[in-house]
Design brief:
The chain has eight helices and 16 strands. The strands form three sheets. Strands 1, 2, 3, 4, 5, 13, 14, 15 and 16 form a nine-stranded antiparallel sheet that branches. A five-stranded antiparallel sheet has the order 8-7-6-11-12. Helix 2 packs antiparallel against helix 3. By secondary structure, it is α+β, with helices and mostly antiparallel strands.
């Protein structure tokens, strides 16, 4: 297992890192609306320019270049309607494609999968526990300043599984999920290690499931939401510490992910850690959701930076559609 310093395997839905079909599809899927408007405007002006020629050409002279100009005009017409329908109706309100560039949802979602998010569903219904949701993460999810735009917001979107909805009491007890006091059988949950042929500082591309022997050596952290100074915060803890930047795992193999928490949540003195660890678990408050990745020890998620407000949810991921070998409905 790789024991180099931990690099959070975020799952921002961002621009592809290499060329080819994947980059082209991703670029088209995320084309800014302003570019689409200019494209449609340019095509419309071009069509207006050729319209007099097509209208005024007499029937007996409609040969030579005329059929070519007419064909181009019809194609441009189709582009206009497609641009308006897809980018101004479908994408903003109904469906949108996203690229998965890293593995916090592996093996449910693989690196470089393209997914379709249903953006209309949460206009008419409430998110449910178990939904795979595309959302805009809070600024606390930033690893560095480069992750934020000029307004201090995250530049990229994430996709995770919804673990808790408003009113749920969510706890991890040494890695095992309990919802409202009942143990949850998470068939999708995985513990993995990177299996890239060459280890680099780039996000891992391929994974393999940890063997049972190796998994037994992990320090399975516990988790709950607690109220501190009037604010509900994520708390990751073991028998020895709580939200500690350098946990005392007592193991040569560290399940480090929960301890790379957002800095405001790390501001717990050693003397206060045990006191905070004993605070009662709080329910997910109204208007908020708790998200975690299926690849549990390789996910930068709500255990790290907390809850997601309702108005930051983009849509429910419903299927993968590229590459063709990975096409499947999500559940």
């Amino acid at each position: 297992m790789d024991t180099t310093p931990f690099i959070p395997y975020m799952l921002p839905l961002a621009q592809a890192q290499s060329g080819g079909t994947r980059e082209m599809i991703d670029g088209l899927a995320r084309t800014p609306l302003s570019h689409v408007v200019w494209f449609v405007l340019a095509i419309s002006l071009l069509r207006l320019a050729v319209y007099p020629y097509l209208k005024n050409t007499k029937v007996h002279m409609r040969h030579g270049i005329y059929p070519v100009v007419r064909y181009i005009n019809e194609m441009l017409d189709a582009f206009v309607y497609a641009g308006v329908f897809v980018f101004m109706v479908i994408r903003p309100f109904i469906l949108q494609a996203f690229l998965v560039p890293s593995g916090s949802m592996w093996p449910t979602l693989e690196v470089n999968d393209f997914i379709i998010a249903n953006k209309a569903i949460y206009r008419f219904s409430e998110p449910k526990s178990g939904d795979i949701i595309v959302f805009h993460p809070p600024a606390l999810a930033a690893i560095s300043q480069s992750d934020l735009d000029k307004d201090g917001e995250m530049k990229t979107d994430y996709v995770k599984r919804c673990i808790g909805v408003p009113g749920d009491l969510i706890e991890l007890k040494k890695g095992v999920l309990y919802r409202n006091g009942q143990k949850v059988d998470e068939e999708y949950r995985t513990y993995s290690e990177c299996s890239d042929p060459v280890q680099t500082e780039e996000p891992c591309q391929t994974f393999r499931v940890l063997s049972d022997d190796v998994k037994k050596q992990l320090t399975m952290a516990s988790f709950k939401l607690v109220k501190r100074d009037g604010e509900i915060i994520p708390l990751n803890y073991t028998d020895m510490d709580a939200n500690a930047p350098m946990p005392q795992t007592g193991s040569a193999i560290e399940d480090k992910t929960p301890y790379h928490v957002a800095r405001p949540f790390q501001a717990i003195s050693t003397s206060d850690q045990l006191k905070i660890r004993d605070l009662p678990a709080e329910k997910v408050p109204a208007g908020y959701y708790l998200m975690m990745g299926d690849n549990r020890n390789n996910s930068h998620d709500g255990r790290v930076w907390g809850l997601v407000p309702r108005d930051r949810l983009i849509g429910k991921a419903v299927m993968t559609w590229w590459p063709f070998t990975h096409i499947h409905l999500l559940k």
